[in-house]
Write the structure tokens for this entry.
Amino acid sequence: MDTLSRMRAFVDVVEAEGFSAAARKVGKSKALLSKYVRELEDELGALLLNRTTRQLSLTEAGHTYFGRAIELLRDMDDLTDVVRQSSGDVRGRIKLSAPRTYADAPIGQSLIDFAKSNPDITLDINLDDRFVDLVEEGFDLAIRITKLSDSSLIARRLAPFRVVLCASPELLAIHGEPSSPHDLTHLPCIVDTNGRYRQNWPFLDGDGETVNVPVTGRIEVNSPLTARAAALSGLGFAILPDFIADPEISAGRLVPILEKNNPEGAGIYAVYPHRRYLPAKVRVFVDYLARWLKENYPTT
């Protein structure tokens, strides 16, 4: 085992804040990482980590070594990345977390098209509507549709995103079109429980301030696709992602409501944890998604 591999194991353990988390992140056993770090300490003749059953901390020597090791590994990885890109050798596995909403909607085709265009990259897609812990669960990156505020992550905005309040023409014929967001309190609504606001829908008032309007209805479901189906059936007003609502709006099967009151500022993001470098395979994937969405996503 060479010094560089031992050094990388040590840095992985420190960054993941533990042997178990590091093992999940890099795909090696906890025992093997422990062996590498112990061999590195033996080679240096210095204790780098204080270990207890519940806690892991750097010694003074460990702090010094870690800071310098990060720089050296970054230089090595950047060099490897440059060579691979220049030779066109971009390959490997990308472990991706994405919401079901993204994958099941028409824009989910972007993932399939990427796989077709990059046969040397394996795309390991995990669909989950929760915000996974990228480091703890060993993901290379995640797609998130949100207002991003987590400063512990590196993010690239791939496309703008908006939500649309809409209803079927049949429902509007019965109840009429609301003149303000507050009218929705007394109208049947379809609640997507996957949404951040659930029964308190956010809107902009006449002054541009955000107001939350409490709503109720006969259907609550954790799927925007099912919420869309309920809206098409005339069961209530629904707030839907634009990439799910727009095809039905274009066909006249849904009607957008109170568009001037829609909240703004959200986006579709690629996010990944702080790393020594961004692997070429991930950079290629993120660039592809940004380009695909610009060409195919109607709001870009």
Notes: The chain has a mean pLDDT of 86. The chain is about 40% helix and 25% strand. The CA atoms of residues 289 and 295 lie 10 Å apart. The first strand starts at residue 49 and ends at 51.
